[in-house]
From TrEMBL:
Residues 64-200 form the DUF1985 domain. Pfam families: DUF1985. Residues 303-331 have a biased composition (Acidic residues). This is DUF1985 domain-containing protein. Residues 283-331 are annotated as: Disordered. It comes from Striga hermonthica (Purple witchweed). Signal peptide: none annotated.
Length: 331
């Protein structure tokens, strides 16, 4: 298979990350005790527990350069090539990392119901932007407006973290209707939607003609931290060298990784240019993960993990190893 993009190896990336994980803490700290407890039971509860995790745009750029062209029968999956081996990033991997719910059939109609939240934006109907959400959130009182503040906080996290996009992108007002029913909001397949936003960069047809061979500019949307953590899981040596696996047994997997340092580009380039690298072709769920709230409504089952070791060529076969997971921390 050929690479999706003709990006010179000497071309660096000028990357803008639109996902702002700090919004999670801002919203959480702005809630009263009762609604903090509700947030810790919501579909976004895992975001509060993510350790210090700094996105490495350099890792994302190296992955972009190693993206393979999509095949017709796997249009929703992104494949990467490392040395002679390939690794897949699909809905399964995305959900295992993020803990966001996925379903086999993502068709989900959002009922249009009266929204008390939309009344807060009477003068901005049809043109509500992300910054408006936090501005209004901060103006609401913690006690007197507790329910409104909580629901608006969920939408703010959704728009700034899960479905992040360009600053001027308008907020889809159907989320205001959905959040009026918290049970439906929390059971929505956010993983399917967030995955589409996140991998859109890797699925586009081309970057066009690269005018400056030394650098290209692009933005990261959706939940790009998931891509970096997936890389730590799919390329175990990458995780060992550049990340910190800080916990075992916690689910989802994003809760087990830390990275609070600035990476050296020379070391990353050396790593990714290595022809022999251990690769997990796919990420397979443990029996505990299959039973989690974010996977149980999909057809994904627990299988043995495929690993291509660094001393074995792809055509000679792949070695299967089973990954054990503790029950502690299952969402």
């Amino acid at each position: 298979m050929e690479y999706a993009f003709d990006i010179p190896s000497t071309c660096s990336g000028v990357v803008t990350n639109r996902c702002d994980l700090k919004v999670v803490n801002h919203v959480f700290e702005g809630l009263d005790d009762e609604h903090q407890d509700l947030f810790l039971k919501s579909c976004f509860r895992q975001l509060v527990h993510i350790p210090e995790l700094k996105l490495s745009s350099q890792i994302i750029h190296h992955l972009l350069m190693r993206t393979l062209k999509s095949s017709d029968n796997e249009k929703d999956v992104v494949w990467f090539k490392f040395g002679e081996n390939q690794a897949r990033l699909g809905l399964q991997e995305f959900s295992l990392v993020t803990g966001l719910k996925i379903v086999d059939d993502p068709e989900y109609e959002v009922p249009k119901r009266s929204s008390s939240l939309l009344h807060l934006f009477k003068k901005k109907r049809g043109k509500i932007m992300r910054k408006d959400l936090l501005e209004k959130f901060d103006k609401l009182k913690k006690k007197e407006d507790a329910n409104l503040k909580y629901k608006l906080g969920l939408i703010a996290v959704l728009e700034h973290v899960i479905l992040s996009a360009e600053c001027q992108t308008l907020v889809d007002e159907k989320w205001f209707h959905l959040v009026e029913d918290l049970e439906h909001f929390n059971s929505y397949p956010w993983g399917n939607l967030s995955y589409g936003y996140t991998v859109k960069l890797f699925k586009q047809n081309t970057f066009g003609k690269i005018k400056n061979p030394k650098s290209i500019q692009y933005s990261l949307h959706g939940f790009p931290l998931a891509i970096m953590v997936w890389a730590f899981e799919a390329l175990p040596e990458l995780g060992r060298q550049f990340g910190e696996h800080c916990s075992t047994g916690k689910l989802p997997r994003i809760m087990c990784w830390k990275m609070d340092k600035q990476l050296q580009s020379e070391k990353l380039t050396t790593f990714f240019n290595t022809s022999e690298v251990q690769v997990r072709r796919t990420l397979q769920p443990s029996s505990d993960e299959v039973e989690t709230s974010y996977l149980k409504d999909s057809s994904i089952t627990s299988e043995e993990q495929e690993i291509v070791p660094d001393d074995e060529e792809e055509e000679e076969g792949e070695k299967n190893v089973a990954e054990d997971e503790d029950e502690d921390g299952k969402l």
